[in-house]
Structure formats: structure tokens, C-alpha cells
Amino acid sequence: MMKTVHMAVYDTFSDWEVGHATAHINRELWHREPGTWQVKTVALGAEPITSMGGMRVLPDLILDDLKPADSAMLILPGLENEQHPETPAAFARKAREFLAAGVPVAAICGATFGLAQEGLLDGRRHTSNDAGYLAYSGYSGGEHYVRAPAVTDGDLITATGTRPVDFAREIFARLGIYEPHVLESWYQLYGNNDPAGFYALFEYEQQRAAAAQ
């Protein structure tokens, strides 16, 4: 059965922060179960969205129609919060629904600020761009802040906006898209720029192709 990961899109969303995650969810190469995963975009309305990089996106569905039971995860990219203060709040409320239903949420950069304002970080280990940045939200979870590129606490993943590869790795691990040793090789290549990761992935794919014959 196809599993759907939903990615939020809103004007000024930071397309580079989610590119590694969405591309490799859709790209079934190296997947544990090829042909199982897809990404759908969700927005506040049905009109086209323009990313911070100028990419135009036509959403697949609107936020009001999104139900946790129909999703494997909700991914929230960063955005220019000050220009669209109502947007992070709306998606943070949806994130609350997801977490209450036991469906994972992954937020990076400015999206973590919205979660903080919603109170979703008050009792969970988390990270963001900086502890001082989140403090401006007025939240009460400062003691749970972790200075790390990406942090997973149960069904919640948070990350700093400068480390999209680490964000993607946490997403893949939580969804179980790759075998653990394949994910390690993936990060070796994309996270550490180590060619050994490429050769390990190539060997894995060759072995799987041979086993399928």
C-alpha cells in the first residue's frame, strides 16, 4: 500500500531545507520497500505557492482536508515568519493533531518557532536555529533545547535550517525507508561528502538487482 508523506507549502517556504528529504522519499532507489512512498503538498488554500527560491507549487490538497490517519508524516519547512504570522500557527495546530494521533511531525528552521508558540516543544527534546531564537516565542521548553543539527523525540523531529541533510536522515530513520546500513551509507555520501558512501550504495543496488533476477 502506498504511504504518503505530506509536506507543507506556503509562500516563502525554504525549498532547500526539505529538498533532500522529499527527493529521496519520492526516489525509490535504495528503499527498503520500493514503490511504497510518495510526497504530497498541502497548503492553507488551493492557489499556487511561491517558494523562497521562486519555485511555483500547486498544492495537492488544502490543510483543512488533511487528516492524520491519511498520512505517514507531516513535514514543515521554514519560512519568513514575520511576513506570514498566521501560517505557522495554522500548521502548528495541525501538527498538534498529528502528534495527538501518534503520527510524526518534522519541522525545520522557522517552522520550529510555530511549534514553540503552540506549546508543542514545552515537554519534548528539540532543537532549532538557536536557543535564543526560540526564546522569543515565549515558550516554556527552553530546558529541553538540545544544541544539535537535528533531534528526534518520539514522533517529533526538529532541526536547524543549516543542516537539511541531517534533517532528512532523521526523517528517513523515523519512517524506516532505508535499512540501517543503507541509511548510514546515504549519510556518508550526502552528509559527509565521502565517496565511499556512493560505492556502498552502488554495491547494495547491484546486489539487490542480482537477487531479483
Task: Average the pLDDT over all residues and give the rounded result.
Answer: 95
Which spans of ≥5 residues are poorly predicted at pLDDT below 50?
A: none
User: Main β-sheet, in a few words?
Assistant: 7 strands, mixed
Identify the strand order in the major beta sheet: 5-2-1-6-7-9-8
Gyration radius from CA atoms, angstroms: 17 Å
Query: In DSSP terms, counting alpha (H) and pi (I) runs of 4 or more, how many helices?
Result: 7
Residue fraction in strands? 15-25%
The class by helix and strand makeup works out as: alpha/beta
Overall body shape: globular
Instruction: Give the total of beta strands.
Output: 9
For the termini, the CA-CA separation is 23 Å
Q: SSE order, as H and E?
A: EHEEEEEHEHHEEHHH
Helix content percent band: 25-40%
Would you spell out the secondary-structure blueprint of this structure?
Layout: E1 3-8, H1 15-26, E2 37-43, E3 49-50, E4 56-57, E5 61-62, E6 73-76, H2 86-100, E7 105-108, H3 110-117, H4 131-135, E8 150-153, E9 156-159, H5 164-175, H6 180-190, H7 195-212
Parallel strand pairs: 1-2, 1-6, 2-5, 6-7, 7-9
Antiparallel strand pairs: 3-4, 8-9
